[in-house]
Amino acid sequence: MRKFSKFIAIIALFLMGANTLNAQLNFLSGLEGGTYQALANDIKGASKQEINVLTSQGSVDNYKRLINDDNNIYVTFLQYDVLLANELQNPDLRKNIRVLLPMFLDEEIQIITKKGSGIENLKDLRGKKVAVGTREQGTFVTAQTIKQRTQTAWIDVVMNSNDAYKALLKGDIDAYFYVGGVPVASLVALGKDAPIQLVNIKSKALSDIYTSKKIRKGTYPWQTTTVKTFAVPTIVAVNIKDMSKDTQRKLNQLLKDTEKGLKGFQKTGHPKWKDVSTRNQAIDWPFYYMRPVVD
Q1: What domains, with CATH codes, occur in the chain?
Q2: Residue-wise pLDDT tens digits, 186-200
Q3: Residue 39 and residue 28: Cα distance in Å, rounded?
Q4: Taking residues 85-108, what's their average pLDDT?
Q5: C-alpha–C-alpha distance, residues 12 and 6, integer Å
Q6: I need a labelling partner for 1 at 20 to 30 A (CA). Which of 20, 115, 116, 123 fits?
Q7: By the 8 A CB rule, do 108 and 180 touch?
């Protein structure tokens, strides 16, 4: 009898653990203090279900965790160029990865240098030490694409974008890339006295991949001039491989909540919601369509 009771207790604990795992939807965002995290938290706040917003090392890290089903990660933000780059290595990627939300935003490509550095344009980066993110970040993919397309021979320094600011002030690097929807909270938090500026990114060699953008003066407290740049399309992606019915229900609810909350997000959420588009013909990828879940 005691053995049976012990067995029942073990089963009960197991079921409690399983229920805990199924109680919430894991939403992988991005760097701490970045735009992905802010947008995911806005969605979480408007959702009728429990959502666990997780941070990551960036878009490449997100992709790896999405396809490996790490900790039941079924939904994440991804830079579109990261997805396309990985499709070259894995032609079957479209079988399982889907665009979840009818929501597309552009993440501005930002190159940051010290005020008075003399670095104003891409050509000024030649021979300079430039932090390009880590290999887990979409920033790394974008920086390498720009380097190859424009033939700008800077010196790569592999470094997390969130660590690059201190390295810049110490003189360890001359500039750094940060790909994120403006305004990036961590860059805003540097305050008006931050001795930095943005670099113009202008090149016809990039216009067939990225979208032309301007980052207007005053976007950041320390920004005194308007600069030209490009932006990377960003999507919310899901992995449908071996997806449970419970996860399908959660994704259906996530779609409903986000579509319903979009206007509210644009009024009270992160400023980047104002740039969100529900139609983007440039995204050539299969969609996840909400459908009834039959038990």
Answers
A1: 22-104+235-275 (3.40.190.10), 106-233 (3.40.190.10)
A2: 899 999 999 999 999
A3: 11
A4: 86
A5: 10
A6: 20
A7: yes
Q: Which of 141, 189, 140, 144 is nearest to 161 (CA)?
A: 140
- Report CA 36 to chain centroid distance, whole Å: 5
Considering only CA atoms, give the Rg of the chain: 21
3-state secondary structure 190-258: CCCCCCEEECECCCHHHCCCCEEEEECCCCCCCCCCCEEEEEEEEEEEEECCCCCHHHHHHHHHHHHHH
* Cβ count near 207 (within 10 Å): 12
**Structure confidence at residue 282 (pLDDT):** 66
Q: Determine whether 114 is exposed, middle or buried from the number of CB atoms within 10 Å of its CB (0-12, 13-18, 19+).
A: middle
Q: Which two structure tokens, joined as six digits, stand for 290?
A: 């909400």
Name the percent of the chain lying above pLDDT 70: 86
The pTM of the full predicted model, rounded to 2 decimals, is 0.73
Give the Cα separation of 223 and 214 in Å (integer): 13
d(CA 78, CA 36): 9
